[in-house]
Amino acid sequence: MPAWSTRKADVSDRARLRALLVDSCAPAAVPSSDCLDTALARGLVRVVEADGELTGCLVAEAPSQGHVRLSVTAVRPASRRQGVAARLLTDTVRELSRQQPEPPLISALADPRDTALSRLLLSCGFLGTRLMRTGGPQADVRIHYQHKPRTAYVDPDARHLVPVEDGEQLAESLTPSDHAVTALVPLGGGSAFEVARFEQDDPATLQSGEAAAGIAFAGSILAAVTFLLGFAFSSTRFPDDVRLLLIGATFSTVLSLIVYASASGELARIRSNSFGNVMKWGNVLSEYGGVLPFLISLPVTYAQASGNLWTTMALALALSAAIAWYERSEFSIAHRFRRSLGERALTVLTAVSPAVGAGLVAADATSWPWTTVLVLTLAARTWLYLFRRGAEADIAERRQWRIS
Protein backbone atom coordinates (compact mmCIF):
# COMPACT_ATOMS: atom_id res chain seq x y z
CA MET A 1 0.00 0.00 0.00
CA PRO A 2 1.51 3.40 -0.96
CA ALA A 3 2.27 5.90 1.77
CA TRP A 4 -0.18 8.78 1.97
CA SER A 5 -0.39 12.07 3.80
CA THR A 6 -2.98 14.77 4.39
CA ARG A 7 -2.71 18.48 3.68
CA LYS A 8 -4.84 21.51 3.01
CA ALA A 9 -5.95 21.83 -0.58
CA ASP A 10 -5.36 24.98 -2.62
CA VAL A 11 -6.71 26.42 -5.84
CA SER A 12 -4.26 24.37 -7.92
CA ASP A 13 -6.04 21.19 -6.75
CA ARG A 14 -9.44 22.32 -8.03
CA ALA A 15 -9.60 20.22 -11.20
CA ARG A 16 -8.37 17.06 -9.49
CA LEU A 17 -10.74 17.67 -6.58
CA ARG A 18 -13.70 17.99 -8.92
CA ALA A 19 -12.75 14.74 -10.65
CA LEU A 20 -12.32 12.94 -7.31
CA LEU A 21 -15.72 14.12 -6.06
CA VAL A 22 -17.49 13.14 -9.28
CA ASP A 23 -15.87 9.69 -9.31
CA SER A 24 -16.39 8.95 -5.60
CA CYS A 25 -19.72 10.52 -4.59
CA ALA A 26 -23.35 10.34 -5.59
CA PRO A 27 -24.25 13.23 -7.92
CA ALA A 28 -26.42 14.91 -5.26
CA ALA A 29 -23.51 14.98 -2.80
CA VAL A 30 -21.03 16.74 -5.13
CA PRO A 31 -20.64 20.39 -4.03
CA SER A 32 -21.35 23.07 -6.60
CA SER A 33 -18.47 24.91 -8.23
CA ASP A 34 -19.17 28.02 -6.17
CA CYS A 35 -19.24 26.05 -2.91
CA LEU A 36 -15.99 24.30 -3.76
CA ASP A 37 -14.27 27.57 -4.70
CA THR A 38 -15.42 29.21 -1.46
CA ALA A 39 -14.22 26.26 0.62
CA LEU A 40 -10.82 26.33 -1.10
CA ALA A 41 -10.49 30.09 -0.52
CA ARG A 42 -11.27 29.67 3.18
CA GLY A 43 -8.92 26.73 3.66
CA LEU A 44 -11.78 24.33 4.42
CA VAL A 45 -10.74 21.51 2.07
CA ARG A 46 -8.36 18.78 3.15
CA VAL A 47 -6.99 16.08 0.86
CA VAL A 48 -5.17 12.79 1.12
CA GLU A 49 -2.41 12.35 -1.42
CA ALA A 50 -0.57 9.16 -2.32
CA ASP A 51 2.18 9.08 -4.96
CA GLY A 52 1.01 12.41 -6.36
CA GLU A 53 -2.63 11.26 -6.71
CA LEU A 54 -5.56 12.54 -4.66
CA THR A 55 -7.18 9.53 -3.05
CA GLY A 56 -9.59 11.31 -0.71
CA CYS A 57 -10.87 14.70 0.38
CA LEU A 58 -13.01 16.39 2.99
CA VAL A 59 -14.89 19.55 2.08
CA ALA A 60 -16.37 21.82 4.75
CA GLU A 61 -18.30 25.08 4.73
CA ALA A 62 -18.70 27.98 7.16
CA PRO A 63 -22.41 28.90 7.18
CA SER A 64 -21.84 31.49 9.91
CA GLN A 65 -19.05 32.89 12.03
CA GLY A 66 -17.89 30.34 14.58
CA HIS A 67 -19.58 27.39 12.84
CA VAL A 68 -18.02 24.90 10.43
CA ARG A 69 -20.12 22.17 8.86
CA LEU A 70 -18.49 19.15 7.24
CA SER A 71 -20.18 18.85 3.84
CA VAL A 72 -18.75 15.78 2.14
CA THR A 73 -16.05 13.17 2.64
CA ALA A 74 -14.95 11.37 -0.51
CA VAL A 75 -12.50 8.47 -0.88
CA ARG A 76 -11.74 6.61 -4.10
CA PRO A 77 -13.19 3.07 -4.06
CA ALA A 78 -9.74 1.47 -4.31
CA SER A 79 -8.55 3.31 -1.19
CA ARG A 80 -11.52 2.67 1.07
CA ARG A 81 -11.37 0.71 4.34
CA GLN A 82 -7.77 1.83 4.85
CA GLY A 83 -8.40 4.60 7.41
CA VAL A 84 -8.26 7.42 4.86
CA ALA A 85 -11.59 8.99 5.86
CA ALA A 86 -10.80 8.68 9.58
CA ARG A 87 -7.45 10.40 9.05
CA LEU A 88 -9.08 13.20 7.07
CA LEU A 89 -11.71 13.78 9.74
CA THR A 90 -9.26 13.58 12.64
CA ASP A 91 -6.81 16.04 11.08
CA THR A 92 -9.59 18.45 10.12
CA VAL A 93 -11.10 18.46 13.62
CA ARG A 94 -7.67 18.86 15.22
CA GLU A 95 -6.81 21.83 13.02
CA LEU A 96 -10.17 23.54 13.57
CA SER A 97 -9.96 22.98 17.32
CA ARG A 98 -6.70 24.94 17.42
CA GLN A 99 -8.20 28.08 15.93
CA GLN A 100 -7.87 31.20 18.07
CA PRO A 101 -9.32 32.97 19.91
CA GLU A 102 -12.26 30.53 19.97
CA PRO A 103 -12.53 27.18 18.12
CA PRO A 104 -15.65 26.94 15.95
CA LEU A 105 -18.59 24.63 16.43
CA ILE A 106 -18.02 21.61 14.16
CA SER A 107 -21.10 19.81 12.88
CA ALA A 108 -22.12 17.31 10.21
CA LEU A 109 -25.29 15.74 8.85
CA ALA A 110 -25.61 12.03 8.16
CA ASP A 111 -28.38 9.89 6.73
CA PRO A 112 -29.43 7.42 9.47
CA ARG A 113 -29.07 4.65 6.90
CA ASP A 114 -25.46 5.65 6.13
CA THR A 115 -24.00 3.62 8.97
CA ALA A 116 -20.43 3.99 7.71
CA LEU A 117 -20.55 7.78 8.02
CA SER A 118 -22.25 7.66 11.43
CA ARG A 119 -19.68 5.19 12.72
CA LEU A 120 -16.86 7.42 11.43
CA LEU A 121 -18.26 10.53 13.11
CA LEU A 122 -18.93 8.77 16.41
CA SER A 123 -15.39 7.37 16.48
CA CYS A 124 -13.97 10.89 16.16
CA GLY A 125 -15.75 12.43 19.16
CA PHE A 126 -19.07 13.48 17.60
CA LEU A 127 -22.48 13.04 19.21
CA GLY A 128 -25.76 12.76 17.31
CA THR A 129 -27.88 15.36 19.07
CA ARG A 130 -31.08 15.61 16.99
CA LEU A 131 -32.89 14.68 13.77
CA MET A 132 -33.26 17.35 11.11
CA ARG A 133 -35.44 17.42 8.02
CA THR A 134 -33.65 18.45 4.85
CA GLY A 135 -36.61 19.89 2.97
CA GLY A 136 -37.25 16.78 0.89
CA PRO A 137 -39.88 14.11 1.43
CA GLN A 138 -41.16 13.52 4.95
CA ALA A 139 -38.88 10.53 5.40
CA ASP A 140 -35.80 12.48 4.24
CA VAL A 141 -34.19 13.24 7.62
CA ARG A 142 -30.60 13.54 8.77
CA ILE A 143 -28.90 13.07 12.11
CA HIS A 144 -27.20 16.26 13.26
CA TYR A 145 -23.79 15.35 14.64
CA GLN A 146 -21.80 17.83 16.72
CA HIS A 147 -18.21 17.58 17.84
CA LYS A 148 -17.92 17.85 21.62
CA PRO A 149 -14.78 19.75 22.68
CA ARG A 150 -15.58 19.28 26.37
CA THR A 151 -16.03 16.09 28.33
CA ALA A 152 -19.61 14.84 28.54
CA TYR A 153 -20.36 12.08 31.03
CA VAL A 154 -22.68 9.38 29.78
CA ASP A 155 -25.05 7.83 32.31
CA PRO A 156 -24.48 4.05 31.96
CA ASP A 157 -27.95 3.33 33.41
CA ALA A 158 -29.80 5.51 30.90
CA ARG A 159 -29.00 3.93 27.54
CA HIS A 160 -31.14 2.13 25.00
CA LEU A 161 -30.83 0.81 21.45
CA VAL A 162 -32.83 1.98 18.44
CA PRO A 163 -32.68 0.03 15.17
CA VAL A 164 -31.30 2.08 12.29
CA GLU A 165 -34.50 1.55 10.29
CA ASP A 166 -36.79 2.87 13.03
CA GLY A 167 -36.65 6.58 12.30
CA GLU A 168 -39.78 7.38 14.32
CA GLN A 169 -38.35 5.82 17.48
CA LEU A 170 -35.02 7.56 16.89
CA ALA A 171 -36.76 10.93 16.64
CA GLU A 172 -38.64 10.26 19.89
CA SER A 173 -35.43 9.15 21.65
CA LEU A 174 -33.59 12.33 20.64
CA THR A 175 -36.40 14.68 21.66
CA PRO A 176 -34.96 15.31 25.18
CA SER A 177 -32.09 17.81 24.92
CA ASP A 178 -29.87 15.69 27.19
CA HIS A 179 -30.06 12.56 24.98
CA ALA A 180 -27.75 11.82 22.07
CA VAL A 181 -26.53 9.07 19.78
CA THR A 182 -23.26 7.88 21.26
CA ALA A 183 -22.51 4.64 19.39
CA LEU A 184 -23.50 2.38 16.51
CA VAL A 185 -23.66 -1.29 17.48
CA PRO A 186 -24.63 -4.59 15.82
CA LEU A 187 -28.13 -5.82 16.71
CA GLY A 188 -29.77 -9.00 15.46
CA GLY A 189 -28.02 -9.06 12.14
CA GLY A 190 -28.47 -5.33 11.60
CA SER A 191 -27.26 -2.17 13.24
CA ALA A 192 -28.68 -0.02 16.01
CA PHE A 193 -27.97 3.41 17.42
CA GLU A 194 -27.13 3.55 21.10
CA VAL A 195 -28.92 6.55 22.60
CA ALA A 196 -27.71 7.70 26.00
CA ARG A 197 -28.42 10.43 28.46
CA PHE A 198 -25.36 12.54 29.09
CA GLU A 199 -24.30 15.33 31.39
CA GLN A 200 -21.88 18.00 30.27
CA ASP A 201 -19.74 19.96 32.67
CA ASP A 202 -20.97 23.53 33.05
CA PRO A 203 -17.82 25.58 32.27
CA ALA A 204 -19.11 28.75 33.96
CA THR A 205 -19.87 26.94 37.22
CA LEU A 206 -16.55 25.10 37.22
CA GLN A 207 -14.57 28.23 36.40
CA SER A 208 -16.42 30.26 39.02
CA GLY A 209 -15.53 27.66 41.65
CA GLU A 210 -11.91 27.61 40.50
CA ALA A 211 -11.63 31.41 40.70
CA ALA A 212 -13.21 31.44 44.17
CA ALA A 213 -10.83 28.72 45.36
CA GLY A 214 -7.86 30.68 43.99
CA ILE A 215 -8.95 33.84 45.78
CA ALA A 216 -9.46 31.98 49.07
CA PHE A 217 -6.10 30.21 48.78
CA ALA A 218 -4.17 33.38 47.90
CA GLY A 219 -5.90 35.21 50.75
CA SER A 220 -4.79 32.53 53.22
CA ILE A 221 -1.21 32.67 51.95
CA LEU A 222 -1.24 36.46 52.18
CA ALA A 223 -2.35 36.26 55.84
CA ALA A 224 0.41 33.77 56.66
CA VAL A 225 3.11 35.77 54.85
CA THR A 226 1.96 38.98 56.55
CA PHE A 227 2.16 37.32 59.96
CA LEU A 228 5.67 36.09 59.22
CA LEU A 229 6.65 39.52 57.94
CA GLY A 230 5.41 41.08 61.17
CA PHE A 231 7.63 38.72 63.17
CA ALA A 232 10.56 39.55 60.89
CA PHE A 233 10.26 43.27 61.60
CA SER A 234 9.78 42.73 65.33
CA SER A 235 13.07 40.79 65.58
CA THR A 236 16.28 42.78 65.62
CA ARG A 237 18.32 39.74 64.53
CA PHE A 238 16.22 38.81 61.50
CA PRO A 239 18.28 39.03 58.25
CA ASP A 240 17.37 42.00 56.08
CA ASP A 241 17.57 39.93 52.91
CA VAL A 242 14.94 37.50 54.22
CA ARG A 243 12.75 40.46 55.16
CA LEU A 244 13.00 41.64 51.55
CA LEU A 245 12.16 38.11 50.38
CA LEU A 246 8.99 38.17 52.49
CA ILE A 247 8.09 41.64 51.21
CA GLY A 248 8.43 40.29 47.68
CA ALA A 249 6.25 37.31 48.61
CA THR A 250 3.61 39.69 49.96
CA PHE A 251 3.65 41.71 46.74
CA SER A 252 3.45 38.61 44.54
CA THR A 253 0.57 37.15 46.56
CA VAL A 254 -1.38 40.42 46.39
CA LEU A 255 -0.75 40.43 42.64
CA SER A 256 -2.10 36.89 42.36
CA LEU A 257 -5.24 38.00 44.23
CA ILE A 258 -5.71 40.77 41.67
CA VAL A 259 -5.25 38.24 38.86
CA TYR A 260 -7.81 35.85 40.39
CA ALA A 261 -10.24 38.76 40.71
CA SER A 262 -9.61 39.49 37.03
CA ALA A 263 -10.50 35.87 36.27
CA SER A 264 -13.83 36.45 37.99
CA GLY A 265 -14.27 39.49 35.78
CA GLU A 266 -13.68 37.37 32.70
CA LEU A 267 -16.54 35.13 33.85
CA ALA A 268 -18.80 38.09 34.50
CA ARG A 269 -18.19 39.33 30.96
CA ILE A 270 -18.60 35.79 29.60
CA ARG A 271 -15.11 35.85 28.12
CA SER A 272 -14.30 32.29 29.14
CA ASN A 273 -11.74 31.97 26.32
CA SER A 274 -9.39 34.15 28.42
CA PHE A 275 -10.09 32.41 31.71
CA GLY A 276 -7.43 29.69 31.43
CA ASN A 277 -4.62 32.10 30.64
CA VAL A 278 -5.60 34.44 33.48
CA MET A 279 -5.74 31.57 35.96
CA LYS A 280 -2.30 30.37 34.83
CA TRP A 281 -0.87 33.75 35.81
CA GLY A 282 -2.55 33.61 39.20
CA ASN A 283 -1.41 30.04 39.90
CA VAL A 284 2.21 30.65 38.93
CA LEU A 285 2.46 33.92 40.88
CA SER A 286 0.90 32.42 44.01
CA GLU A 287 3.10 29.30 43.93
CA TYR A 288 6.50 30.73 42.98
CA GLY A 289 6.00 34.21 44.41
CA GLY A 290 4.02 33.44 47.56
CA VAL A 291 3.87 29.82 48.73
CA LEU A 292 7.46 28.74 48.16
CA PRO A 293 9.12 31.88 49.62
CA PHE A 294 6.84 31.54 52.67
CA LEU A 295 7.73 27.87 53.21
CA ILE A 296 11.45 28.45 52.62
CA SER A 297 11.45 31.31 55.15
CA LEU A 298 9.88 29.19 57.92
CA PRO A 299 13.14 27.53 59.10
CA VAL A 300 14.85 30.94 59.16
CA THR A 301 12.06 32.29 61.37
CA TYR A 302 12.31 29.25 63.61
CA ALA A 303 16.09 29.67 63.87
CA GLN A 304 15.62 33.26 65.05
CA ALA A 305 12.93 32.28 67.53
CA SER A 306 14.52 29.16 69.04
CA GLY A 307 18.27 29.52 68.53
CA ASN A 308 18.51 25.71 68.47
CA LEU A 309 20.67 24.53 65.57
CA TRP A 310 19.59 20.88 65.67
CA THR A 311 15.83 21.42 65.67
CA THR A 312 16.23 24.18 63.09
CA MET A 313 18.09 21.86 60.72
CA ALA A 314 15.62 19.03 61.35
CA LEU A 315 12.75 21.34 60.39
CA ALA A 316 14.68 22.68 57.38
CA LEU A 317 15.51 19.20 56.08
CA ALA A 318 11.90 18.10 56.54
CA LEU A 319 10.70 21.11 54.54
CA SER A 320 13.29 20.47 51.82
CA ALA A 321 12.11 16.87 51.55
CA ALA A 322 8.46 18.00 51.46
CA ILE A 323 9.17 20.53 48.70
CA ALA A 324 11.12 17.92 46.71
CA TRP A 325 8.18 15.50 47.02
CA TYR A 326 5.72 18.19 46.00
CA GLU A 327 7.77 19.12 42.93
CA ARG A 328 7.63 15.51 41.75
CA SER A 329 3.94 15.06 42.59
CA GLU A 330 1.09 15.53 40.15
CA PHE A 331 -0.11 18.58 42.10
CA SER A 332 2.77 20.89 41.20
CA ILE A 333 2.86 23.21 38.20
CA ALA A 334 6.22 21.79 37.12
CA HIS A 335 4.76 18.28 36.87
CA ARG A 336 2.45 19.39 34.05
CA PHE A 337 5.35 20.07 31.69
CA ARG A 338 8.24 18.08 30.36
CA ARG A 339 11.34 19.23 32.19
CA SER A 340 14.75 19.83 30.66
CA LEU A 341 18.05 19.47 32.49
CA GLY A 342 18.08 23.20 33.32
CA GLU A 343 14.55 23.03 34.72
CA ARG A 344 15.50 20.08 36.90
CA ALA A 345 18.44 22.08 38.24
CA LEU A 346 16.08 24.94 39.15
CA THR A 347 13.82 22.44 40.92
CA VAL A 348 16.74 21.08 42.95
CA LEU A 349 17.83 24.60 43.95
CA THR A 350 14.29 25.34 45.13
CA ALA A 351 14.08 22.13 47.17
CA VAL A 352 17.42 22.58 48.97
CA SER A 353 16.82 26.26 49.77
CA PRO A 354 15.19 25.71 53.21
CA ALA A 355 18.13 23.62 54.44
CA VAL A 356 20.78 25.96 53.02
CA GLY A 357 19.10 29.13 54.27
CA ALA A 358 18.42 27.78 57.75
CA GLY A 359 21.99 26.54 58.06
CA LEU A 360 23.46 29.92 57.09
CA VAL A 361 21.21 31.88 59.47
CA ALA A 362 21.68 29.45 62.37
CA ALA A 363 25.46 29.68 61.92
CA ASP A 364 25.35 33.50 61.74
CA ALA A 365 26.84 33.34 58.26
CA THR A 366 26.11 35.78 55.41
CA SER A 367 22.81 34.83 53.79
CA TRP A 368 22.67 37.38 50.97
CA PRO A 369 24.13 35.01 48.33
CA TRP A 370 21.56 32.36 49.23
CA THR A 371 18.68 34.84 49.03
CA THR A 372 19.91 36.17 45.69
CA VAL A 373 20.16 32.68 44.19
CA LEU A 374 16.70 31.78 45.53
CA VAL A 375 15.08 34.91 44.11
CA LEU A 376 16.71 34.36 40.71
CA THR A 377 15.63 30.71 40.76
CA LEU A 378 12.00 31.50 41.53
CA ALA A 379 11.98 34.37 39.04
CA ALA A 380 13.38 32.08 36.33
CA ARG A 381 10.73 29.46 37.03
CA THR A 382 7.99 32.08 37.01
CA TRP A 383 9.20 33.43 33.66
CA LEU A 384 9.57 29.92 32.28
CA TYR A 385 6.03 28.77 32.99
CA LEU A 386 4.39 32.07 32.04
CA PHE A 387 6.19 32.80 28.77
CA ARG A 388 8.12 29.76 27.60
CA ARG A 389 5.63 26.95 28.10
CA GLY A 390 2.56 26.41 25.98
CA ALA A 391 0.40 23.32 26.08
CA GLU A 392 0.82 21.06 29.05
CA ALA A 393 2.67 17.80 28.50
CA ASP A 394 2.39 14.31 29.95
CA ILE A 395 -1.38 14.73 30.36
CA ALA A 396 -3.41 12.25 28.36
CA GLU A 397 -5.86 13.83 25.93
CA ARG A 398 -9.40 13.42 27.20
CA ARG A 399 -12.03 11.72 25.12
CA GLN A 400 -14.75 14.10 24.10
CA TRP A 401 -17.32 11.96 25.89
CA ARG A 402 -17.03 8.89 28.05
CA ILE A 403 -19.02 6.56 30.24
CA SER A 404 -18.51 7.17 33.93
Strand-helix topology:
Layout: E1 4-8, H1 14-24, H2 33-41, E2 45-50, E3 53-64, E4 67-75, H3 84-97, E5 105-110, H4 115-123, E6 126-133, E7 141-147, E8 152-163, H5 167-173, E9 179-187, E10 190-200, H6 203-234, H7 240-268, H8 275-306, H9 309-328, H10 341-362, H11 368-388, E11 401-403
Parallel strand pairs: 4-5, 8-11
Antiparallel strand pairs: 1-2, 2-3, 3-4, 5-7, 6-7, 8-10, 9-10
Helix pairs in contact: 6-7, 6-8, 7-8, 8-9, 8-10, 8-11, 9-10, 10-11
Mind explaining what this structure looks like?
The chain has 11 helices and 11 strands. By secondary structure, it is an alpha+beta fold. The chain has 2 domains: 4-200, Aminopeptidase (3-Layer(aba) Sandwich); 203-388. It has a 7-stranded mixed beta sheet, with helices on both faces. A 4-stranded mixed beta sheet has the order 9-10-8-11. A hairpin with a 7-residue loop joins strand 6 and strand 7 (141-147). Helix 8 (275-306) runs parallel beside helix 10 (341-362) and helix 8 (275-306) packs antiparallel against helix 11. The protein is elongated and about 90 Å long.
